[in-house]
Specification:
Blueprint (H helix, E strand, L loop, with lengths): L15 H33 L2 H34 L3 E9 L11 H4 L10 E11 L5 E4 L10 E5 L5 E9 L6 E5 L20 E8 L3 E20 L4 E10 L11 E3 L5 E8 L7 E5 H14 L5 E2 L4 E3 L2 H7 L7 E3 L15 H4 L7 E5 L2 E2 L6 H5 L7 E8 L2 E8 L1 E2 L3
InterPro entries: Chloro_Bact_Ser_Proteases, PDZ, PDZ_sf, Peptidase_S1_PA, Peptidase_S1_PA_chymotrypsin, Peptidase_S1C
Keywords: Hydrolase, Membrane, Protease, Transmembrane, Transmembrane helix
Family: Belongs to the peptidase S1C family.
Length: about 400
């Protein structure tokens, strides 16, 4: 069958020139009507002397809309700061330097070679931040802030009062700790749901910046979610899993302070900052902090469930590099040293039959990908809980059950 692209001769198209002339006429008529209406309106305003008033009110209304948005945002920020600041504390680290003179350690680089012994007595050697969990003095901070067993710690509240602090518990697998001061009538924070955070959401960080500027406030956004980073102070390092990235300025001394949303709710614990980039900070999600404190309230210590494997998260890059059959899940493999086996002997993973080069695809039906890490899913459970693991082993899929144990250092 032939299909012609030519129009039928029995139905000629209208004269194009006529169509143009008709449209021009319509446009001209409409334009004259519009101009006439506007001219009459403006002329009336000029005669009545109201033109300047009308123009001024229109301009003011437009400017007012912009100003209202700006003032609302500023007001929201200041309200949040006023709400949260009474719950933020500074943590002071003190030590008798005469007892550690000429010793190497976490404070030696502050002082360097000295020709004479430092004066005796406690001296401040560092500082961090924290926030109040209960009215009777439980406080959340970072583990690295209170990790020195030879140091003494004190807490300075927002009203300038100082209290001696006791380290109650430190997290065996995360950079979190709980300290206690003997006082009543404090203002505790309110936690938000860190699982609902979105990239681009406004957040505010509050803390003891540089260990000397108490309750410093910085503002930014959530720059990334579910980041895995390795943080350290030069003498030790720790891998932080599933943390929040933010461009709100986090400085030394901010460690342990709260990251809050515009509702004044704590959604993170400020923990680390990149020394290589600018405005790249990290915070442990607030939901993890809540779990830690609930554990302390129930058991008097921080209890963590334990599976007993070493692994890497599989990404498209890892799949290509290691020639794996999938681009998600976690690959069980040994650590960098000989005493870091892929599967810990006697662990729940060992008892469930897991071995090196197995790939865990799912846990309790949750696919392990960039949005769902194995560590986060494990921490939703308690020691003694059973978890179902979908595993790819030797090219075949199988499901095994592991009974989680309590993690012990």
């Amino acid at each position: 069958m032939n299909i012609s692209t030519q129009p039928p001769k029995s139905n000629p198209s209208p004269d194009p020139q006529r169509r143009v002339n008709f449209r021009t006429l319509v446009v001209a008529v409409l334009l004259s009507l519009v101009l006439g209406t506007v001219g009459g309106f403006v002329g009336g305003l000029l005669v009545s002397g109201n033109f300047s008033k009308w123009f001024s009110s229109a301009t003011t209304a437009s400017t007012a809309n912009v100003s209202t948005v700006s003032v609302k945002e500023e007001s929201q920020t200041t309200d949040v700061v006023k709400q949260v600041q009474p719950s933020v504390v500074s943590i002071i680290i003190s030590k008798d330097l005469s007892k550690i003179y000429n010793q190497s350690g976490p404070y030696s680089f502050f002082f360097g070679p000295q020709s004479s012994s430092p004066s005796q007595g406690l001296q401040q050697v560092g500082g961090g931040s924290g926030f109040i969990l209960t009215a009777d003095g439980y406080i959340m901070t970072n583990k690295h802030v209170v990790s020195d067993t030879q140091a003494e710690y004190s807490v300075v509240t927002n009203d300038g009062k100082t209290y001696k602090a006791k380290v109650v518990a430190t997290d065996p697998v995360n950079d979190l700790a709980i300290v206690k001061i003997e006082v009543s009538g404090l203002t505790p924070v309110v936690f938000g749901n860190s699982n609902t955070l979105q990239i681009g959401q406004t957040v505010i960080a509050i803390g003891n910046a540089l260990g000397q500027y108490q309750n410093t406030v910085t503002k930014g956004i959530v720059s990334g979610l579910a980041r895995d980073v390795t943080a350290g102070d030069g003498s030790s390092s720790e891998t932080l899993i599933d943390v929040i990235q933010t461009d709100a300025a986090i400085n030394p001394g901010n460690s342990g302070g709260p990251l809050v949303n515009l509702e004044g709710q704590v959604i993170g614990v400020n923990t680390a900052v990149s020394q290589e980039g600018q405005l790249i900070g990290f915070a442990i999600p607030g939901n993890q902090a809540q779990q830690v404190f609930e554990s302390v309230q129930k058991t008097g210590k921080i209890v963590r469930p334990f599976l007993g494997i070493r692994y890497i998260q599989i990404t498209t890059e890892v799949q290509t590099q290691d020639k794996l059959p999938v681009n998600y899940g976690v690959l069980i493999q040994s650590g960098t040293s000989q005493n870091e086996p892929a599967v810990v002997s006697g662990s729940p993973a060992d008892k469930a039959g897991l071995k090196a080069n197995d790939i865990i695809l799912e846990i309790d039906g949750v696919k392990l990908d960039s949005s769902h890490s194995l560590a986060t899913e494990i921490q939703k459970n308690s020691p003694g809980d059973k978890v179902a693991l979908k595993v790819l082993s030797g090219g075949k899929e199988k499901t095994v059950t592991a009974t989680l144990q309590e993690y012990k250092q």
